[in-house]
Amino acid sequence: MEINKSIFKAYDIRGIYPTELNEESARLIAQTFLKFLSEKLKKPIKELHLLVGRDNRQSSEPLLKAVIEVFLEYGVKVDDAGLISANDHYFGVGRHKYDGGFVATASHNPPEYGGFKMSHLNLDNPDVLEFIAGKKLLAKMEEIDLPLTDEKRSGTLQPKDFSNDHLNHILSFVDLNKIKTLKVVVDSGNGMNALMIPKLFAKLPGELIHIFDELDGTFPNRPPNPLTENAWQKCGQKILETRADLGIMFDVDGDRMFLVDEKGQFIRGDMALLMMARPMLEKFPGSGIVYNLICSHAVKDLVKEWGGKPIRSEVGYMNLARHMFEEGGVMSGEVSGHFAFKDNYYADNAFVALVLALQAISKDGRKLSEIMQDYRLYARGDEINLKVEGIPAKLDMIREKYRENILDEMDGITVEFDDWWFNVRASNTEPLLRVTVEARTEAELKEKQAEIVSLINN
Questions:
Q1: pLDDT at 151 over 90
Q2: Which of 15, 253, 283, 308 has the most beta carbons within 10 angstroms of its beta carbon?
Q3: Percent with pLDDT over 70 in the chain
Q4: What's residue 437's pLDDT?
């Protein structure tokens, strides 16, 4: 069959089910994954030991069933963790040293999407989890013959539950005696973290108010992505109604965490990163904190002030993980709510981020909104997405106009002035330019945003 190449993304595989991605294409993807992993690990396919699982989307069960059938057909030993979050996937592969992980999930895409996330351990360092990019798997698919001609033999399939191991791992990042009794609203968005949250809060002091805690792959209560406009409002309302100390939100596959303060106001990921970075630097003095280049300059300034090493990265969790490993980082964070940790196999873990945030709030003693004021050193606008044609020409225009002030082109173009800076970068997946601007004051921010947008649109 002819597979739809558009489903192979920069980080994973995602497509509308069943028109763009279906069981037939899943079988081809599964065979390609086996070949990729076998060559990468220098191990015959029949000797591979894999962890599989799925999220609660309606497409994930039939898609994973097709994948498991392929794995078993080629003699693979398969452990099926059933319904798992992205956090469980990364922890499971890392802790139990599987050759690879293969999970049916479409991340935070709308409910009509299906998809896959794939991982394996670093060949030289088994404490480092690596992700298999969708585009990388497509390249492998185009160079091999399918179906595979490897020997067929019966594999084995058994259920696997490591949730208690994972819970203990999460709690190992904090001192429970230092977490105060807090009232916390948790919005799981009818997604996968709803399974772990009651177990986690049973070990924590305080009161849990859990909303959208039933698994529902149609995600009826709010958008799957908490960064969608107004997605946080119901969580904010519940905080105000219950007079809670804070709110926690997850995307539906569970790897991203967001904070909402006691006033019901959403907190950007780079500000949450700072709150976690400080105790991490107290525990690991002089360590690196990795942040992406659209984070506020407050991250760089405060990490330095606290004795840490700020490490700047391209956008995207795979990039941050690489910088963390190569440059001695202890944790990383993005505006998008991805938080990864060296001691979590260099992978994301939203639950670890949650407990670190609770410990940081407890230690400070002030309200969350008051803590955040310490970190808002600059006026940073939300990322602006501009639909444009001729992206290379637009970027050339930016280069020409601001050539004296270009900082670098690590990811798009970053331009730096004494009182403001901006980054313009192309989207990986859409015909968009993404614009981030930060300035000393709100007035200057608005002025400079208008300047950049006008230049690009004209």
A1: no
A2: 253
A3: 100
A4: 99
pLDDT(427) > 90 = no
CA distances from 406 to 394, 423, 450, 453 (A): 15, 10, 19, 17
Task: Given CATH 3.40.120.10, say whether it is the number of domain 5-161.
Answer: yes
Q: Is 107 a catalytic residue?
A: yes
Residue 158: is it exposed, middle or buried by C-beta count within 10 angstroms (0-12/13-18/19+)? Answer: exposed
Residue 246, SS3 per DSSP: strand
d(CA 357, CA 248) in angstroms, rounded, equals 10
Q: What is the DSSP string of 129-174?
A: EEE--HHHHHHHHHHS-SS--SPPB--EEEE---HHHHHHHHHTTS
Q: Of 38, 60, 107, 332, which residue is the catalytic one?
A: 107
Give the chain's mean pLDDT: 97
> 3-class DSSP state for residue 292?
strand
User: Is 0.85 topped by the overall pTM?
Assistant: yes
Residues of the chain with CATH 3.30.310.50: 379-457
> What are the tokens at 27?
């079988």
Gap between the Cα atoms of 94 and 119, Å rounded: 10
Euclidean distance between CA atoms 226 and 142, whole angstroms = 35
Report d(CA 408, CA 371) in Å as an integer.
32
* Rounded CA separation 346/321 (Å): 6
Rounded Cα distance, 130 and 446, in Å: 40
Query: What does each C-alpha distance from 158 to 91, 113, 216 come to in angstroms?
Result: 18, 27, 25
The DSSP call for residue 153 is B
Fold type of domain 379-457: TATA-Binding Protein (3.30.310)
Q: Are 152 and 44 in contact (CB under 8 A)?
A: no
For the structural domain made of 180-377, what CATH number should be given? 3.40.120.10
